[in-house]
Structure formats: structure tokens, C-alpha cells
Protein 1
Amino acid sequence: MADLTLTAQNALPQGDVAEVCGTSIRVPPMRPLTSLMPGASQGLGQALKKHHGLTLPEPGQRTLSDTAECLWFGHRQYLLVGVRPADSLTEVATLTDQSDAWSTVLLDGPLARDVLARLCPLDLRDAAFPMHATARSEIRHMMACITRVSADGFRLMVFRSMADTLLHDLREALAMRAARENL
Amino acid sequence: MRLSSGGLIDRTQPIGFQFDGHDYAGFQGDTLASALLANGVRTVARSFKYHRPRGIFSAGSEEPNALVTLGTGAQTEPNVRATTQELFAGLQARAQNCWPSVDWDVMQVNDLLADFLGAGFYYKTFMWPKKAWEAVYEPLIRRAAGIGKLSGADDPDLNEKAFAHCDLLVIGAGPTGLMAALVAAEAGADVILCDEDATLGGRLNAEVEEIGGQSARDWAAATLARLSDMANVRIMTRTTVTGVYDQGTFGALERVCRHLPPGRGKRPVDCFWRIVAKQAVLAAGAIERPVAFRNNDRPGVMLAGAVRSYVNRYAVSPGRAVTVFGNNDNAHRTARDLLAAGVHVAALVDAREGAKTDLAVPFYPGAVVERVFGANGVEAVSIRTAKGRERLHSDCVAVSGGWNPSVHLTCHLNGRPVWDAGLAAFLPAPGAVPNLIPAGAAAGVFSTAGCLASGAEAAGKALLALGLNAANTTIPQAEDGTYDITPLWQVPGRGRAWLDLHNDVTVKDVRGAAVENFRSVEHMKRYTTQGMAPDQGKTSNMGALAVLADVTGREVPQTGTTTYRPPFVPVPIAALGAGGRGMGFAPRRLTTSHDVSLSMNAPMIEAGLWYRSSYFPRQGEATWRQSCDREVAMVRNAVGICDVSTLGKIDIQGADAARFLDFVYTNTFSTLKPGRVRYGLMLREDGFVMDDGTTARLGPQHYVMTTTTAAAGLVMMHLEFVAQVLKPDWDVRLISVTEQWAQVAVAGPKSRALLQDLLGQDLSNDVFPVMACGPVTLAGVEGRLFRISFSGELAYEIAMPARYGESLFRLLVARAEALGGGAYGLEALNILRLEKGLLTHAELDGRTTAQDLGLERMMAPGKDFIGKAAASRPGLVAEDRARLIALKPVGPVKQITAGAFLFEQDAEPVRTNAQGHVTSAGFSPTLGHTIGLAFLQNGADRVGERVHMVDHLRQITTLCEVCEPVFFDPEGGRTRG
């Protein structure tokens, strides 16, 4: 069936969504996401280093290489971001493709923390949530993964099916927070 | 009356406003209360029950009288305290509980009937006939009594909820709070300083005194400026901490733009904060309490501290000839400040024998104000001295019965305050709230110097707990006056003396409660309604319980207090529910075919958080039933396409995956061959059915479990519990892949042809039989194919990564339409499964067992599984339990409705005769009549019998025949196709 094609589609239109008071909401391109569950196996750290140049992150942390990222993703679970896992990782962990399961939105700017304070119970002060900190938490009742990616930047991930709601909630919170600037 | 100078108002900025239709002017910095007083408006409300005229009583959030309605139309806001409402241009306020006007109110007649309307009157009078209470009496009483009214329209305003975190939360920004915040901030702690006022400083803004050689209010402003410059300090004005909760969490209400004219755009009205603090200092100050005497509710009777607030902060004199009446040194300050402001002090009455003053005022030591005269406001006072009575012309009484530390927050975790006889007040119980340190007036320290020291000390304790070293913050010099109180709660005498102004409760009512044997303070409260108004008795609780103690011959500490509960001030439900209106109520989970389905005009139906297509209307179809019938026929005769991605999908891997499934399912999965699928049944620990679904074995150590849409989260949680807690030593790894895969059912006799053509591979029974599964490739994309059926037809489910979901759905629908089929929705899906007697959570309702469902053979006898032991309990295996059957109508009435009850044909349709109920029902176009699934006592043995289905709500009675649960193709030949 030569005429057959399936078109890939991000849950959200990629690109800039809004920018208010220097704070932006942006949908980045989809990246490969793979869940790594080592179980009792000890070899994941070494294999990750060898094949992807990444160290295994501590709970609540992420590690980076030039091309990839490893995210702590819960109890005995990691998320490999940005690259397809090397085949030999299957020897030291259970791999599950999650690339289509999560939607990612970037929130960056001076109001980012205040916007998140309206949607999420996490303590996002520098001391509690420094650069490269990550947490599984909630954003307005949605199970989420939140990662600090820059001084004022946060990467927010929710299930793909809820991406629309996430974007709506972020826009609304940003608009209301920004409206306070002129009080 | 506005004083010619002074105050924290900006006289260069006049502000026009309206009260009860009249135009007035005030200044920037005024509250509505101070502006009304400045304009000589004395009566601002009518009382709750007796409709007596009421004036402004306090200068803070404790106000029991001056509740007004703000705004018009949908933005009407009742019960706004005039004492905390900042004035803004164009503010429109109306008096409440009066008609036609606050000055001349028809319901004033209630006051003449006061002798009949005391506490308990309603309970005793409106008893008969019983039904009349709800229909007649209550609406009548509610109309007569009351406080403001809501507009009834949808609230157009926006609200917020937010979280904040800090090392130290300082509650209140008076001298104590400012000092505590300063000490902690200079030591490097992350500090949040909350105060309910717009201008920080607390009493410092209302008093004339010095701190560190400058005026107290200047010191407050300077300290605030210092704090504002520090990056580790967050100052939250107009923010009242309303409650204390576990783990150092505090609720706080921020009034974001209630001080601004309407036209708010995206600005929230209120923001409800949840503040998480490692340490907290309670510097909430104290609330002055009145003394009860005859007619002490008349406009013009005011708390002495409030009089000082109006004179010193707002440059308003509440009267032209003020009588000051108190039982402590503090009251004398009021006379002093009035004199300094040039206001005539008619008398300084001090209840304490031997009290002294240097002030040049008529002074009455050892005397009391016995009553006030004047129908619409204070005109004269009667002073009782040892020598007799004296009547003085006076239009304002500034009264102080002492101060009550604001212990409220220390009681929110069930702490009981401790009585201090010297201060005649309750103090916070030590350690009442973990990591919350009461300080300053809230801890019974009533001098400014004492408060500054107490604030610094509290901050020091907090810093120690935080592991920070205190910097060398100097405590400035300040006034260290005496308090010296002799308790006085009420002045005995004839007539009515008010305790609770808000709920119209008098000394006589409290006595009456005791006489009726409501002697416990909690009973007295409920009998009289004292303390139950929006002010929560802030100015009346202490007086009421002291009177109760007196009547019952007990001391105050033995009588005890009622329980202070959150919130400290009223919190609008709109703030608590911020963002939850309309679609904000819950997240929407959308399938990848959502947009396509909408473009096909499919109405959506909610399944948990998911939105699923109900049906896909075609031209000429006017009702959902027409579409549904067509879709059912389409699946039975050609091929239908349905997005089933919402079903839970759980990836289960590991060396012990098979063993794990054997343990969580009643039936066996270790024997399942790779490339095959099996239907499974899962019980809860208590033996009832939790969920069902199919599980596919993709590899020796790799399964994919399917759950129902509704129970996906529940099952995931259950599996995690089993893996982490019950079998932690097993090698099992779980992850939800629900969102990773878009899964679409292709069902109907032409489904094989469709998929063979699409996938270019042989799907004949030999290659891909019923319950087979395996990898497929479509347009170069790897996916999965399952031969499973929820319709009883030859059917498949194809799964592709979610990014291709929309594309896949479009493709399949187009192919199906070319074969005479098309998309079908949840309505048709439901009819298809009903015809086959397949289960949903209408049947797996948490109360049914495997046996009830006719699935007892799925309980594998040779192994252990969760729920096995509990499922064998006698009650769960009793023969007479209701069992799953199907129903079809056999009489003239053809309706079967879900929720209806089943009765024997000749039994009266009453509760005690019910033998079961209908779980699901619908019209089967295949069979040409309505069908239903139901649970019926001994149902399995009663096939062929006739029963009555009675739907009491819809008033339907249908004669039904009991049938086997599977109507259509009971041999399953079509599925095996």
C-alpha cells in the first residue's frame, strides 16, 4: 500500500503560545522519552554512562549530556530524554517508550514561579528547587513532572490527553498574575 | 465629624462615594466606616433580629454591626465590613436588613415585641404543624431576620488560589510582628509577613506614642521600608491568615482588588493562599471587648480603641461629646487623645475604685455607665456612682472592658486557651500549634515596649529552630504603660444589655439559656446563637461566657470557651473554589481522535475525565437513537470504528511478571502463550470484583494489561501496592502506557477484510485466531494488533503511538465507510455489549462477586490470588444472592430503565419486596426490543420466569421475562468468524 501514510502530531501546536511581562509559554518539539526501570539490576548507571554519557540522577534530580538527559521519574524509575536508548540498555533495565505519553510545555520568565504557585503546591524557591531539580507533583489536579531548566525556566510535563487543559490553565494563571502588575 | 488636621489620610485626594443612595465624600486612606463617620452618618445597619438601628462599633475585622452590601447587579457583595473596606472612587454601598431605609425600617416593630422574641422563641413557637416549619415559618423568619442577600446571578469576578512557602510566617504586622519579621529577616530567614490591613503597623497607626524617638507610626513606616528592601522578605498586605492546618500549613485570604473600582479585567478579587511555613510567629494582637449595659447597642456606643483609631488614624471624631467608660488604664488614653484632638470629653468613667487621672475631664472613679438614652443613637448617658445617678448629654460612648488576645489560630488544632486571672483574659495554650509562637498582645503582652521585645524573642526562638543565628537587631525604646484591669462584664440593671450585637443576643438571653439548663457554654451558644454570626463572636464571646459563668455560679475558666474554628474571617466560597468554575472543575482528557470526532459532529460524553464520542450523526438523523441504531447495525453487518484509547493500559514486565498476574487475577496468566490474549478478573482484598479486562502476553516476561476506563487509576494503584508492599521481592516493573498508545476497535464482519487490506497481511483464523495479538507495521510505523471483541463480532483492536492516533482514526473511518461502515460511539458500543451480556462498571459496581456475575469458574482453584479467602465468606457465596440475568419486556409496556427495581409478579412494589435491580438497559435494534442487564435473587435459576420491573422515579412498571445474559449469538460463532 504505497499510498499509505500516518501523520505524526504533537498534542499541542508547537511554538510560542504567549508572552506576557517577559514571561513566555512555549511548546517545544516532541523528543524521544524512554522509561528505564532497572529493578534489582545494578548496571544501569554504568550502561548509561557508557552509551549515553549520562550519570544516573539522584532522586529529585536530572543529569545532562550534550544531546540527552536522564530524569529521575519516580521510585526506581528514570526517564531518558532526547535520544533513543541503546539496545544494550535492555540488559540492565526494562525500557518502555513514553515519547507519545507526555506533553511538554516550557514556562520561562520573571513571573514563572508566581504562575506555578497558582497551579502547583511545590516549594519552588531556589534553596528547595535549584537548577536541575525535578519532581513528580500535580498541576491543577493533573499528574505532572516539573523540572527547573534555567534561572526562571521550568519544564512542565503532563499526560498527553491533558495537554490542552495544561495550556489553558497556564495562560489563565499568567494573565491573572500579570494583571496584578498594574495594581 | 472630620477633624481639621492629623490622621493617615491624604486630604489632597478626595473620593466621592454613595451610601444608601446619598452622595458623600471621603479621602484616600479612609475606610468606608471612617468616611461615614466623617460625614456624620451614625446609623449604618439594622440589627439581625430586632431591626434596631446600629452604628459603627469597631475599626477592624471584628466589626459586628457595620455590614453593608457593595456594588450592584451580579457584582453585588453582601456583608462587607465597612470597617475594613477601603474607600474608592464611585464606591456604592447599601445598608442591609432594612426597608424602606436604614433610618426608617418597617420591621422595627420586632423591637416592640422583644419580650416575645428572646432566645428559644422560634424553637418553642413554630413547632406545629410540623410541615409548616419548612414551608411557612422558616421562609418568613428568614425574610425578616438576616444579613445581606446574594444577587442570585452568576459571579462574573475572577478569583485565585495560590501556594507560598517560607521559613518564617509572621501573622500580623503591629509592633510585635514588625519586630519579629525584622529580627528574622536580618538573620537571613525567608520571611512572609501578613497583615489584614492595607497599611502595616497595627495599633501603632491608631495610637499616639513614640518608638525609638520617633512617632510610632513613623517607626512602623520606616521598619516596613527596611523590610521591603530585603530580598528574603515577602510582605502580604490585605491578607488575613484564616486558619491553621497540619504540617505548618496556613490558609490566608488576600483581598487583591477590593479596594479598587470595578472594571477589573483579569485581576482577581481575592486570592486564597496556602502558606507552608517551617516556623510561625502569631502576632495577631488583641481585640477589645465591650461592657454590657442597657441599650449599649445604640449608634454612638463604640469600642474605646476604635475611637482612638478614628481620631488618630482617620482624623474623625465619632462624636461631639464623648463619654469614655472603662475598667482599665488603657481606656484613659482615649480621653487623652480626644482632648488632644480638641474633642469634648463629657466624662471619663472608670469602674475601678480608686482609679486616678491627671486629665482635665469630668472623672468618675468607681462608677459605671448604666444606660444610654436616644432612640436612634446615643443622646445622653446615665452614670451610676456610689452617690447615685447622673445624666449627662453625650453622643458617643467609648467603652473598654479590656482586651482579649487573638488566640483564635492557636485553637485550630484543638488547643484550648488558658485563663489568666491577672489579665482577665484567655491566653494561648503553650505548644498549642507546633512551631507557632504566640507573641505580643496575642500572648497577653499589652505594652508597646513589651510587644517589641516579645516579637524579637519569638523571632529568636524561630531562628534557633531554623538553625540560623540572630543578627544584632536592636530593640528600640518604647512606651511601657500599665494595663491594670478589674474585670467588668456587664452593668446590672433593668432593660436589655447587648452581648452579641451581630446576632442580637442580650444578657437576658444568656441567663435564659442557663435557666433552661443549657449551662454548658457550647449549649448556650447554640440556644442563643451567640457567636454564630459572621463575626464569630469576636467582641462577644468573652462577655457571654462570663455572664454564663456568673449565672451558673462558676468561674470563667471552669465555664470554658466555645471552640474557635477556621476561618478567622469569612472566606468567600468563590475564593476557595477559585478556577473551578465551568470547565475549570476538572482537567479534560482528550483522545487523539477528539478533533476529528468534533468535525464529524459527534457529541461528547464524559467518562471519568475523558471525553468520548457519544455517536456520529449522519444526515437525516434527528435523534441520538437513530444514529445509535444505525451504528449498531453497521457493526453487526459491515464494520465499525471506535476509539478505545481511554481504556487503561499497563505495561507489566520482569522475571516475575507471570507470577504477579496469577496473584492479582483470579484466573491464570502464567500459562498464556506469548502472542495470545486472555480475559481476566480481578478481586479486591475483600473478595468483591474490582475490575476486568484483557491482558496480552507480548513476550515471555512482558504483558500488557487492559483495564476499564473508569478503573484505570485504581488498578494501577492496586498493582503498585501489590508490587511494592505485598510482593516487594518479586521482579515486577509497572508503568502506565495508556497515553502512549492510541487504540482503535475495528469491529464487524468486514473488519478482517479492512485490516488485511490495510496491513497487507493475512489475518485468517489460522494465522491470527481469536485472542491473538502481535506486532504490526502500518505505513512504516510499528504498532500492535489484538483480536479481541467487545461487540460479539469478528473484531480487532489496533494500537499505534499516540502521535499517529488522529491519522489512524481518519484512515480507518475512511476505509470503513468505503465498506459500508463507519465510526461508532459510546451509545452503540453500549448496545453491542448489552446484546452480548458483556460487563461494565454498571455491573462491576463494587458490591458484586464473581459468582453474582456468573464468573465463578474464573476463580482458579489451584492457586492463591488476592481476594480468594475473603470471596469464600458465607455472605459472598450465599445461594440467594442477586445474580446477573438479562431482561426483555413481554407485556404492553416496553421500557426497561437502569436503576429500576425487580419484584415478583404479584408482590407489592415496596422496598422490602425488592429482589434486584436493573444495571443497564437500552434498545436493541438487532432484536427489535428493549433489553436490560439486572441482578435478581437466584437469578440464574429463574430464566423464563416473569418479574415486574418498577421504576418508582419515572413511574414505569414493565412486565419482563428473565433471560440468559447473552441475547445475541450465544455460541460466539461470529466472534470466532
Note: Chain B has a mean pLDDT of 95.
Protein 2
Amino acid sequence: MNILEISDLTVRFAEFLAVKDLNLSVKRGEILGLLGPNGAGKTTTIRAIFGMVPYEGEIRNYASSVGWMPQHSPLYLNLTVEENLRFFASLHGLKNPKERVEEMLRLVQLEESRNRLVRNLSGGMKQRAMLACAMIHDPELLILDEPTAGVDPPLRMNFWEHFQRLKDAGKTILVTTHYMDEAERCERIVMMRAGEKIAEGSPEEIKRFAGEETVMLWVEDMKGSFRILSKYYDVSLNGQISISVKDAPSELPKIISILEKAGIKVLKSEIKRPSLEDVFLRLMEE
Amino acid sequence: MLERVSGVFVKEIKVIFREKRLLAILILQPVILVSLFGYAFSGEVKNIKVAVVDEDSSDLSEMLISSLHSTDTFSISYFTATRSELMELIRLGKVHAGIYIPKGFQENTNKAIEVYVDESNYNVAATAISKINAMTASLSKKFFGGLEVEQRFVFTTKSRMIDFIAPAIIGVVIQMLTLILSSSSISREREEGTLELIFSTPLSSSDLIIGKFLAITALITVDVFIVVALAHYAFDVEVRGSLPLLLFTQFLFLTGTIGVGLIISALSQTQLQGIQASMIFGLVSIFLSGFFYPLESMPEGAKTISYFVPLTYANIAFREVMVKGNGVEVIFPQIVVLSVYTLMSVAGAILALKKVMGGGSSV
């Protein structure tokens, strides 16, 4: 069941088409990653969801509450961390936010800095304060625009562990990111380029769909093997024989059989799957 | 070095030319300001409304009255029978000056014309007295022995300029303070990115405007007390009428001006644009509100604009209460206008913000 549905979304800035006919649905309880280079239209899509830019198409939201963590953490610089949290709690109509504020401060590890002005916080601390403000009302759907930009690796891990806990508690997260290891943690990914969706699926599906696998062979007669296999496959020779195929597990027995028929013994074989980064870079180049 | 300087020069010009609103302000501001300064300081006071009591009904009094008619400095609005009626017309603000010609004026040149002027408007009072003196001096040449003119000031006990212009200064100060605070309020949030963020919450345009409106009202109300207290205790400026009534009209004026500031702020992309636009509004208000130049003396076009300037009504109300000691019965029209002004400007700010933000969150 979907919590957010976007149909034929188009966003124009004068002549520039920032998002073009985007169809996207976020399933209740999942972590959906929006992946793409700068200018792909990720942030514009999010701003359209919040009605901040004029758009064509339809956006249907079925969540009872939504939390938003924009890029660059636009908090009130002359308020303390706690004052910001209390302010956002008031905007969401939280009657007695004391406990929730404490919980959020603990979560983002800012208990010690609760009375510091936001303007005096480091970039990573501002991100943490922003995340706490976005979650202050315990939203059903959390929309995070590059939440870990400027956050150090241990805290990034901490953020994602928390996102996972939120997901386990039934929350839904739509997150944009540049980090491939973060994208790997999403259940589904939507890749965007120049305002258009170019791939959608689980990280594994996307890797299978868009990336070629590599079969690596170590054989007795390298040159002979290279000559024979080149008739059938895209082969390269670099210390071992590398063969690019769509589905390596099913192709490997066929390859071995071809070589054995030619009297060449296979000493060792390995299958190398592409990383999400390989797929991402390939799709962006196309 | 030349390359670097020319690089900066070209960049600056391009940046300014691409900020359309800033460019418009750059072009419009000098046009508006020079026109207003020129207009305010080069014109002369005209059409001062006067009432006349002619107890003499002589050739000389006829000549004096026809002299008043023949100049565009005065406009005779009333002929009254008694001196007290004349005083009442000045008190109610229906005329700014009154001329009392006593019985036997022509026969007995020792009898002086009495000129009553409303000193609550300093420019008008000074012009009226100097013109009447010039007229009587001219008539004196035709009559042996000369003519006496007695000046009588209405409303004031002290002849200090600060007493006459204090109400207007207070109005201008309130307006400037209010505009500075309100005109950058929303544009600052837009620049810092917090505006979009708070509109992703259930907050509506009216919630934001009303919240800001109340906060700025509270702050400026404290300022109003400081300004009035300072004028009174440091400069001995008198409030002859009711102090609560004065504070109430000042409150109405500041709330309406906050609304205008918030409209400007909602429509401005940056704080700089907001402050510049509010400065234009503030200066136009000052020049067209009767601060320098009485409304009666303005050309029709300028006079029409001045009716849409809230400071015009505020100045009248403050002057009536502070200098003349008048009450609600006299400043009721100004109270109504300022109340409508507040309602319209606050509603306008909500609509402007709704239009700019598309009504806020769609989720």
C-alpha cells in the first residue's frame, strides 16, 4: 500500500525542465532512496511534494503526518537547539513536548549542546539538530534531503541505524543521498538523471538490470582461451581472462564447457558482481 | 590587477542587473525622492482655510476681506458672527486661522485686527501671520496712521517649535521603527531557508502573519511608551488631551504599519529589497502626510495620494489630541480610517504570503 504517489510530475523554471513526467510511489513502511547527481531533480521533487514549487501532475499523500529535513539545515540560528525543537513542536501542535524534546536530544546526541545557539554548532551538529526537528512530531513519513551531508562516518552509521529502527517501527522514509553505501541500505532506489527517472528497484534488481557481471578465469592457455572466447563474448585479458556477461552464474558453465571442448583446462573461476557505484556511474554516462 | 578589478566590476554590474527588483528600486528611488524633496521644499503654503468675523462692515474691512480673497494663500471658508464661533471652528480643525475685525476699526485706527492661528500646524501658522502682516502693511499705506494687527495663538501656551511638530515626529518615529522591524521579517526567513521549512508543517499563512504581527506589536508598543515618555520628560512636550486616547491611536497606527511592513516583506525576495521598499513607502508617507506641507496646499494629485497615506490620519489625530487637547468626538474619523487600515493591511499580508508560498504545505 502506497503512502505517497507522484504521477506525471513536471516542474519547470522558466524554460528549464527540472523534473519531467516523474512517476513515483513510496510504499508504506519502506526506505526509498532517491539517487542522482546534482541537478537530477531530487530536491525539486521534494519541494514539489511540499508545494514549494508550482508543478504539473499529481501528488497524493496518504500519510497522517510528514517530517522534512531539507538540505543545509535551515534552522533558527539565534535560537538554541532546544528552543528550535520546542518551536517546531509548537508548530505541530504538541501540547507537552518536554519528553519528546528530551528523546530527540538523546537520539541525535545533542543533550550536552541543548543550550548552544545553532549558529555556534558545527555542520554535523546542525544536521543532527535538523533531524531532531524533522522528527519532533513522530511523523509517519519522513522526507530527508541528504541527511548525512557533512556528518562524520560514525554518526552517519548512527543515523542509518536509527532510520532502520524507524522503519522497523512502521515508519516510511524517502531519502536522497549521494553515498552509495547509504543507497545500498534502502529497500528500493529510484535513480534520476536530468529530471527523469532512469531506474527503479531494489539495489540488487538495479545492479542486475543495469550492470553487467564479470566472470574471471585463470586458465593454462591464456591467449588461446582469449581467442576462442572472443568469438562469443566481450573479453579482456589482464592477468586473467575477464568476460562481461548479463547473468554470470548461468553463463559460467557454458564458458567452461567451450574451453574444455577446446582442450583448455580451467584452473580457477570467480564471479564479480558490479557495485551500485559502478551501475550508477554507468547509467549517468549513458 | 586591471583584470581583477574589471572582473569584479563586470560581475557587480551583471549581478545588479539580474536582480530585477533591486534594479527597479535603483531607478525609481532617485526619481521619487528627488521629486518629493523638490516638491516639499520648493512649494509655498496655499489655500489656508480661514474664518472671518467682520463687526465693522466698513470700506476698510471690505478691502481687507477682498485682499484675502485675491491671494491664493487664503481660502475664506466661513463668515461668522462672533469671535467664539470663530474659535470653535479653529478648535474643530475646520479652519486654520481666523480674522476678527472689531467694530470701529475704520474709524479708530488704534483698534487692532485680531488674527487667531492654529499653531498646531507650524508652517500654516507662520505663513498665515506673515501674509496677513504683509496685507495690512500694504493697506496701511492707503490709510493714514497705519493698521494694528494683534496675533493670538490658539491652543498653545508655549511658542516652541517642538510642541507643534512633536506629534508628527512621534508618528514618523513609530512608522520607521515598525517598518524596519516588519519589512525584513519574512524576507529574512526566506533568505535563511526557514520559511519553506516552517511551511512544511501545519502552519498556515495566517498563523505566521498573526504570530509575527503580535510579536512586533508588543515590541513597538514598548517603543511608543519610550518615545512619548522621552518627548514629555526630556523635552517637556505636553499632551493636552487624553493620554490613553493618544496611546490608542498610536497603537492603531503602528498595527496598520506592521501590516504594510509584512506585505512588503512577503513580496520581497531578500531583506535588502524589503528594507529598501519600506524606506520608499516611509519617505513618501512623510512627504505626503502633511509633515512638511499642509494637505490644503498640495496639488490635487498629491492630495489624493495623501488620503491613502496612513501617516496623514495619524498626524492629524496625534496633533488634535496632543496640541489641541481634543477628544474622540473630533478624531473619530481618523480612528475609523486607522482601524480599517490595520484590518486591510494585515489581511493583505496574509493574502500576499499565501500567493507567494502557494498556501504552504501540500502534504
Note: Chain B touches chain A at residues 192-194, 196-203, 357-363 (CB under 8 Å).
Protein 3
Amino acid sequence: MNIFKVLVACLIIFVPFNASAKTDSFAVSIASDHIDVTVGFNGSSIELFGDRRDKNAVVAIVVEGPKKNVTIWQKARVMGTWVNRHYAKFKRMPTYYNYAISEENIDKSLLKAMMENAIGHDALFDRVNSSKNKKRADIKIFQDALLKKNYDLGVFFEKPVEIKFINNNFFRASFDVPPSAPTGEYKIHSFLIKNGKVIEHITDGLKVEQVGLNAFIYKSAQNYGFIYALVCIFIALFSGWLVSSLRVKP
Amino acid sequence: MQIYLPIAEMSIPVETIFLLGGFVGFISGVFGVGGGFLTTPLLIFMGIPSAVAVGTQGSQLIASGVSGVMGYWRRGHVDFMIGTVMLVGGIFGSIIGIIFFQFIKYIGQMDLIISLLYIVLLGSIGVMMLFEGVFTMFRKKTMRSEFNRLKSPSLISRLPYKMRFPRSKLYISVLVPGGIGFVSGFLVSTMGVGGGFLLVPAMIYILGMPPLLVAGTSLFQIIFTSAFATIMHATVSNSVDILLAVFLISGGVIGAQVGVLASKKVTGARARVILALLVLGVCSQLAIQLFLHPSDLFVMVIK
């Protein structure tokens, strides 16, 4: 009897959830789940395709690279020389971060949803644990510097990526990945937002990694540092010997 | 053609590295110097992380060292005994250098300290070389007497652990060549320079070695010290980029050949003046970056 009650309770709880997932109101897919960094790698792009049923809902997509701790140093004059003087540490900052949003006019409720879900560059600092003992105004200088550094590197874009609608529902977006983009696991978060509320959230993964010769060199250096060094030395010894034997001939 | 460097983890036009290697090889061919003092700063100017520039430079020092030492070896102009004692000092110097390197990286002042070391080293050597070169150019009579070795100062002759070095006809404390080797090892692992321009005068004036043996012996020592530094950098800080090294070396091989041919047309004193100006050029470029108001006040370090 008890088991029956539990089963009924389960059905009541889970059926609506299943039903809502099956409505297929939002779907996003990446064209490829990996970017190969080869010897000749000169940048690539992440292509996304998606479909939303409700044409009034806003689509937002965030692509973020592996997270690392970042220190921003500010130079100051010490005895005539410019040296790294003040710093701010930002814990677990994405090393690549770009976003796309289908709405140009961002109102208060949309902005709130963006901040809550870490969409947009300003939202990065809201959740990121930056170093204490610094006033808000001081930390702002370092936040701006961090953004500018990443803009210059090409791993953050100053403007959001455009979401192109092919018809009312079907869309695509393309995120450039410059050669300076770090390797590692990337996360793609796709949101469907309506009336300032996220109604759908899909997370996908993508790997940016060195392949072929590069991967071999990278892994050898990481795992077999000693043998790797010996190979470097051998190459150097051999080419040095080659030069001297060429020089003797004439 | 862009090439992605697996350890530096950045994309760079392969022609630039090749040209840089060729240019430095040419310089080393013309002037008979290793050229490390040019490669490391130029790599850093190109945007290669300082750690990778210094770590990788060791391989090029080995290549240019081997190509240089073979000739001296054939003629018997290498004192292996002193070289080995210097090498022991060099290994200690490298270890201290690597620890120092990790320390300045940790406190976030690596770029500043490497720049300062370069400015001091290049500035003093450049100025000395310039004076000496100009002096010789204008006075046709070479001041032979000045080049005779100085007598070992009394402090040096009083040092313990004396040893006989028959090849150089010296009876001297092992601490002296060991100490000179130590400095060289420190330079290789922190700055990626062999320090030949420092070693050679030190070996002549402080050690009192016969000048004929000096170049070969210092090269012999630099090869092994650089090899040791390469192993340390590869295992401790993982900062040796083999692909970068291959392109630098292959550029250097060709450059050195051209340089040797060109060296026949450049005479001693004039060559030294040109080299001195080159050294001072790199030095002032580094100094400008340090002393002028930087266009970007911020530096980003990712860990």
C-alpha cells in the first residue's frame, strides 16, 4: 500500500517536468565539439545552431574557456623605473569569454537575468571572487584593465556576438576563436529568457586541444620533461656539429 | 606562415623566428660571440613569454657552442681540466639561477629583474667594448702591453683547495675557475646568455689562462652548463619549446655560414665597435621600456 502511494507521488511530481522538457521549446547544437590546434593553427570558430519556439523570448549564449586565477599588476614609478607595484587577484576567471544576445534593448529585468546567470562581461565580476581589502572604485580600475587585456588578446570581444535569425525561430551564431585562445575545456551555456526569467538553460561542452605533432610535443614536455630535454639537447648538439663540419670543408 | 608553438602556446610567423635565428647566427659568425644576449631580448620583444625565451635559448647556446668548440678542439685549444672545474661551478650556478628564476616569477617581478640584469650586463659590456674598439681604431699602434695578463691578486692566490692545471700551466685554487663557472651558470639559467663576453676576460685576467686556450675552454663549459640548464628548465618550469628551438637553430645555422664569410671583410677593431653599438642598441631599447612612461600601465598574469 505504501509503495503504491510513493509511486503515485512520484508520478505527480515527475510527470509535469517530463512534459515540459518534451515541449522542445528551445534547442541549441554546436557544429563540432572540438577545435584542433595543429602546428599551423591560426584561429578557428565555434558555430552554433538553434531553434526557439517562442519568438518573443530572448536567446542568450555564453562561451567560456577554462578558468584560471588571474593577477592584474599596475605599474608605478619606483626610483625612476616603471615596475609592477599594485595588484588585484581574480579567482577562477574564464580565459575566454564571449556572449551573444538576441535583444538589443536591454531593459532592467533582462539585465537582472543576465547578471544572475553570468551573461555579459560586467556579470563576470559580480560572481567572481576578487581580492579583498580594496575599495570598489580601486577594484574597478583593475577590472577594466583585465577586460582591456583580454580584448587586446582577442579572447574577449568588446561587443556581443550577433545572433542571426534565419526565420522567426531558427538561428545561428559564430564565435571566433583566435590563436591566442587557451586550450582546454570550453563551456557553452544557452539561455532562453522571457520576462526577465530564464525559462530554458542548455549546457554544452567543447574541447580546444593541441593535436598531432603539437599534442605530442606538449604531452612529452609535461610528462617526460627529462627525456624531452635530452631530445632538445641532442638536436642542438647535432646541428652544432653539422655547422662545424660544413665549415671545415672549404 | 603562422606556426603554433606548443609550449609557448601562441601562434607566430615562422619566418620571423627563422630570420631572428639567422640574424643572430650571422652576428655570431661575424663576431665569434654566442649571440644569446640578442636572442632572448628579441624573443621577448616578439611577445614570447620571458620564461620560454630564456628556457629555449639554452638549446641555441649548445648548438653555437658545439659548432665553435670543434675547431678549437681539433687544434688542441681546449683545457678540459679547467673546463670541468668551471662546469661543476656552472651546475651550482644553474641550480641557484633556476631557484632565483622561480622566485622572481613567484613575486611577479620577472620582467623587471630580467630587464634590469640585461641593462646592467649589456650596458657595461657595450660601453667597455665601444671604448676599447674606438681606442684601437684611432691609435693604429695596438697597446699590446695592456693586454698582458694581470698578476693574480694576492687574495686569489691565498684561496684554499689549490690544484695543478698542466695544460694552462696554472697552480690555482679550484674556487676561482669554479666561481667563474658559477657566474656563467647563473647567467645561462636566468638570462639565457652563455656569458662568453664575461667569461673570456675573466679567464684571462682573473685566472691568468693562456689566451689561446680561453675561447675553446669557455665554449666547452658553456655547452654543458646550457645542457644542464635546459634539463632544469624542462623539468622544473616546463619552459623549453622544442619547435621554437628548431627554427631558431636552423636559422642560426644558415646565418652563421653567411656570417663567417662576411667576417673576412670586417676587421677586428671595426667589428668590435659595430658589435658594441648593437649591444648598446638592445640595452637602450630595454632601458627605454623600463624608464619611459609605459603606454599600458597594466600587466596580466594568468596562473
Note: Chain A touches chain B through 61 residues (CB under 8 Å).
